[in-house]
Amino acid sequence: MKVTILGSENAWHVEALIGAFQKRGVVVNVLRAKEMKAFIKDDIACPGVGTDIGDVVLVRSLPGGSLEQVIFRVDLLHVLGEVKDVEIVNSPRALERTVDKMYTTALLSRAGLKVPETYITERYEDAMTAFKELGCDVVVKPLFGSEGRGMIRVTDPETAHRVFMALYQCRYVYYLQRFIPHEGNDIRVFVINGRVIAAMKRHSSDWRCNVALGAEVSPLDPDTSIVDLSLRAVEAVGAFYAGVDILPSKEGELYLLEVNGIPGWRGLQQVARSDIASTIVDAIL
């Protein structure tokens, strides 16, 4: 068996996966997104890297780029699965659903799961109106992004004006969510193939509880409500494995913030009982 990992060879997660695959006798190739290519002749599409791409492509990175570059990379994953019968993890469909916060939030809401009130628009005027309708306390997020980077909390009209004008000038989409008061912690649940394999609480003095921004972690034995919520969220986006972010409000309600289709687990591994990379690999094999 041969597996190609789409990502950077020296990245922590990729190295962990390479080690897990090699311990099980699997040949591993690492490919950067910009190295993806395809050759089409006589109605036969031949995506690859100059060698056999293998039986499975495990996507660990889909970096930004021009619109053409992003569409090409995702469409090539579709071609690999549909034409070459390569197993893509996560599937291109799941990646499309989880890389876009609007798409994810809409699917979670349709599945009957509780999400913060959210407003998405391209117009400055609509964003200012939404800011007021959402109680003049919102979290502005990039439509694409992870680890809490690029998020800002806006609580007054003057700041809203400045932030929204800057976004307008850079031609960004406005993604606004009502701020949910909380106790300075949230929950990350890791789901693989329909099973919760690890969970943690993230604690922060900031309103953002991301490990990449300095949050501390502690192990969590999730109760049935958190397990059920996490499994339903992953099912809603159609992912094989994912990280689910849940925010307990001060009133005790559980809000779904995100389902990450290319989830990191470096912080979670500190408190997990099992090796997460090995669990992912065993589930794929």
TrEMBL record:
One Gene Ontology term, aspect cellular component: cytoplasm
InterPro entries reported in the protein's UniProt record: ATP-grasp (IPR011761), ATP-grasp_RimK-type (IPR013651), ATP_grasp_subdomain_1 (IPR013815), Rp_bS6_RimK/Lys_biosynth_LsyX (IPR004666)
Pfam families: RimK (PF08443)
Ranges for domain ATP-grasp: 105-285
GO MF annotation list: ATP binding; metal ion binding; ribosomal S6-glutamic acid ligase activity
Source organism superkingdom: Bacteria
Protein's name in the database: Alpha-L-glutamate ligase, RimK family
Keywords: ATP-binding, Ligase, Metal-binding, Nucleotide-binding
One annotated GO biological process: SOS response
Transmembrane segments: none
Organism of derivation: Acetomicrobium hydrogeniformans ATCC BAA-1850
